[in-house]
Amino acid sequence: MDLITTATSKDEADRGVTVALLPVGSFEQHGDYLPLATDTIIACVIAREIAQHYPVMVLPPITISCSHEHAAWRGTVSISARTLHQVVTDIAESLSASGVDKLAIISGHGGNYVLSNIAQEASVRGPHIAVFPQASDWNKAREDAGLESTGHEDMHAGEIETSLLLATYPDVVRPGNETADWTADDRRHLLTLGMAEYTKSGVIGRPSLGNESKGLEILHSLRDSFAPYLSLLGQQS
User: Fold this and answer.
1) What is the pLDDT of residues 78-136, one digit of tens each?
2) What is the value of pTM for the model shown?
């Protein structure tokens, strides 16, 4: 998979950009038909789509993050929110030493709540870190791509994630998504009880609705939605 940049130091120096993209995914269960690396793949393909249209530097992804709610399933691996916070802030400080002083975190996993705190802390004196996509960006992408399920209904391994993988890396999608729909709209104690309390399969959503065309439209929408983030990060602070 071409998910890690092969740019050289000279390539980046010649381009002279000051905003980097850091894909942050996870390594967690996505039912029986999507890979453990789903969130990482999605964060990387969003970053790649953005980089094809905007002057940014793309970093290698963070592939393990905060997936504690998925701990009941074999293969899920997590680090603490404290560790993720430290890794991301260390990366931002290291980048700044070489003249790249703004960072857009491309978030592929909704459970990494600490990323929002990192952006808040770093941007007290001016825009330095942003987290993308936000809920409004995902909602717009759903609308633009004509998705049938809502963001709440389609929480995990559903229509949107299946569509993105079918559009970019269809070979990693195993048979079975067509019959894997699972409804669990009332998840008020998810943080306390974990995913296993609400789904037997690991899926919450409607993967049967996913297709390649929707995935491509989602990417195009997210690409366009990134423009104001880059504008903000490009401001002098």
Assistant:
1) 999 999 999 999 999 999 999 999 999 999 999 999 999 999 999 999 999 999 999 99
2) 0.96
φ, ψ for residue 148, nearest 5 deg: -90, -25
Token pair of 72 as six digits: 């009941």
Query: How does pLDDT run across 137-169, given as a tens digit for each residue?
Result: 999 999 999 999 999 999 999 999 999 999 999
Residue listed under structure tokens 């009880």: 193
Dihedral, 90, 114, 35, 214 alpha carbons, nearest 10? -110
Cα distances (angstroms) measured from residue 57 to each of 39, 40, 53, 136, 234: 20, 17, 12, 24, 13
Per the listing, tokens 């890396």 go with 169
Burial 23-43 (b: 16+ CB within 10 A, else e): bbbbbbbbbebbbbbbbbbbb
**Which distant-in-sequence residues (6+ apart) come within 8 Å of 9 by Cβ?**
none
